[in-house]
Amino acid sequence: MFRMTRLLPLVLLPFALRSAETGFLNREVIVEGQKFLYQVYVPRDFSADKAWPVILFLHGAGESGNDGIKQTLIGLPSAIRKNPERFPAIVVMPQSSPQRRWSDKVEQDQALAALEKSIVEFRGDRDRIYITGLSKGGAGTLHLAYRDPKRFAAVAPVCARLIPSAAQLEAAGKKESDYPNYEAAARKFGADMPVWVFHGDADPTVPVESSRKLVEALKAIGSGVRYTEYPGVGHNSWDKAYGDADFVSWLFAQRRKP
């Protein structure tokens, strides 16, 4: 005898029973009434049966916009495409406006909203959340970690500066005292925060002294900060940094301290 069965709507099925999308996925988040596009990378072997490490990646100035795409073209996303097996993680890639910096509150809020939404959607491990970024995003990495250091298990700024240049300050109508200095940032991070800093010593865009000052301030409080300075390398130190298998292994070995 044929029996009719009732089909449950997809939304009622456990996430593990659904056919999960993988790869680079388009997503959006609403913050203060404004829609922000972001992308999230989901590994090919994703399963909701376990919790996954999560990386928040902040792009540089050249990838700013509102298309939700450009932020995935260089840096960490490029490294993922070249060696996906090295990145068994959920990677969140928000996009900043060309008119704003990652230190601006609305940009930080939209990045954190995208991070939170991805953690919930893809079962992110809250004890293994990492933040990294390059140039403009390297500065954003430092500012977001300064804002909420207890959220992150590790911090990895690439060719970053904590305080904008004099020209950038003038354009934004701000002054140096509007930003934390390196000593204040080091104290906020704390000696136990795992930090790995990268910079090219021939960088014409972001002076290498900015990373050196950060490392010195962290060492002064007893931090075990790691620092890689690439001789003869200009602004693009991110290809070397994100292409370093040792860095990736180090990153995933970090867990948030209680």
Secondary structure elements and pairings:
Elements: E1 23-31, E2 34-42, E3 52-58, H1 76-82, E4 90-94, H2 105-121, E5 124-134, H3 136-147, E6 154-158, H4 166-172, H5 182-189, E7 196-200, H6 209-220, E8 226-230, H7 238-242, H8 245-253
Parallel strand pairs: 3-4, 3-5, 5-6, 7-8
Antiparallel strand pairs: 1-2, 2-4
Helix pairs in contact: 5-6
Give the total of domains: 1
Distance between the termini: 59 Å
Q: Per the principal axes of the C-alpha atoms, what is the gross shape?
A: globular
Q: What is the spatial order of strands in the main beta sheet?
A: 1-2-4-3-5-6
For CATH, the homologous superfamily is named as Alpha/Beta hydrolase fold, catalytic domain
Order of helices and strands: EEEHEHEHEHHEHEHH
Class from secondary-structure proportions: alpha/beta
Corresponding CATH architecture? 3-Layer(aba) Sandwich
Largest sheet: 6 strands, mixed
- Count the DSSP helices: 8
Class in CATH?
Alpha Beta
Give the uncertain stretches in residue-range form: 1-18
Share of residues in strands: 15-25%
Oligomerization state of this entry?
single chain
Question: How does this model look, in words?
Answer:
The protein is of the alpha/beta class and about 260 residues long. It has one domain (about 20-255): Rossmann fold, CATH 3.40.50. Helices cover about 30% and strands about 20% of the residues. The protein contains eight helices and eight strands, in the order βββαβαβαβααβαβαα. It has helices at about 75-80, 105-120, 135-145, 165-170, 180-190, 210-220, 240, 245-255, and strands at about 25-30, 35-40, 50-60, 90-95, 125-135, 155-160, 195-200, 225-230. The chain has a six-stranded mixed beta sheet with strand order 1-2-4-3-5-6, with helices on one face. The chain has a two-stranded parallel ribbon with strand order 7-8. Strand 7 (about 195-200), helix 6 and strand 8 (about 225-230) form a beta-alpha-beta unit. Helix 5 crosses helix 6. The longest helix is centred in the middle third of the chain and has 17 residues, at about 105-120. The protein is globular and about 45 Å long. Residues about 1-20 have low confidence and may be disordered.
